[in-house]
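Q: Two folds, back to back.
A: First:
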Amino acid sequence: MTDLLANSTLVLGGARSGKSRFAENLVTSSGLECHYIATGRAWDDEMQTRIDQHRADRGPSWTTHEEPLDLVGKLAAIDGAGRAILVDCLTLWLTNLMMEERDIALQAAALAAWLPQTKAKLVIVSNEVGLGIVPENRMARDFRDHAGRLHQMVAAKAAEVYFIAAGLPLKMKG
């Protein structure tokens, strides 16, 4: 048995790159039952507006699950053949873990270990944050480093990896 998740895709890109739209199209074009795991939290009114807009844009054909911390638990709970699950996004999940002072390495390893078990088509979105300058403060540097390691772990398990820039996908793996 291969360690790659044959029906998994990681979609990376910068802010407003088109990665979420690309990922949503992968899920809806599958013809499977569409599930969305939202990891973001509404820390302020602006973020709540973003969350509301994303939900409205997806429409009623999606089942939305809000899960800011227990991503593996939620994936396990809704996994199943005939489903496509979109996780949007790993970097918001990482932010939540950091704010709650969770063990990032343990959580990332648990996610990577769980991925090959899924029965659903899985599409995971994340922000590529490692292409800029070295952040000026420790928390931002820790975040960038955690995100880079998390992306490497997920990309190693995924069958396909895309990088999105200016709405254009670059297939990096698969």
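A: Second:
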Amino acid sequence: MKKPFEVIAIIGKPRDQQAIATHKELYTWLRNQDYKVYIDDRLSEILDDIPSDAFASLIQLGRIADLAIVVGGDGNMLGAARVLSRFDVSVIGVNRGNLGFLTDLNPEDFEHALSRVLAGDYIEEERFLLEAEVHRHGQVKSHNAALNEAVLHPGQVAHMIEFEVYIDESFAFSLRADGLIVSTPTGSTAYSLSGGGPILSPSLNAISLVPMFPHTLSSRPLVVDSKRHIKLIVSPDNRGTQEVSCDGQVSLPVSPGDEVHIYQSPNVLKLIHPKDYSYYHVLRNKLGWSSKLF
């Protein structure tokens, strides 16, 4: 019988010895199961006891792998997702970080859960990404993708900025604030949540717009359909440069008078979970919600 996954990639830039050990354990375990295994080439110097032909770049891994196992926290998953979403590869996470909303597998005993996943016993869901573009004088100056959120903010020095918000070319509102968080459902439990944004169920096709410290009490988070095209026109009177931050990892410079376009990416992240996964169980654990009363 054909295996659901034949070629497996192990991805992640480890911060500590425990994570490095997890990479080695995964590689050895998967090779013993007769899988073809490749590793993120950012680890080639650290994992010097693994054959050099087992290493490949993230883009090469996206092209050749059926399954990518991301070791680390949500930050590693976000970085990998922006690249892997361009390819037909399923992704699962081993949690070596702090919160781990996106990384399910326990590194201490991944074998049982991963065996079931590799046998085809798993849940698959698609998470959409955002595309963020900075337009200047009618031309796209820079762009990147975001799985969690795209944030317009003042850059290094905190100060108020002014901008107008258009949804599908229709003027919605103007804002004087520290910025705006434009979040996917995946990102609704991340930076957006700390800014007072709503938690969006991952299957919702919706985007939330969360003002950051707005200068008026009438400013409230707004949820729109994910097919809407969001345009932010930055006031030409703003001082200094602003930025659009994608997942807190990539910054696109924005000048006064620029336009920022944010819209749903044509690419999706194919995230897979063990069969016993429950989104609400994860929320209860991570956010410290109360347990059942009876």
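Q: And?
A: Helices lie at 17-32, 58-64, 74-84, 110-118, 191-194, 279-287.
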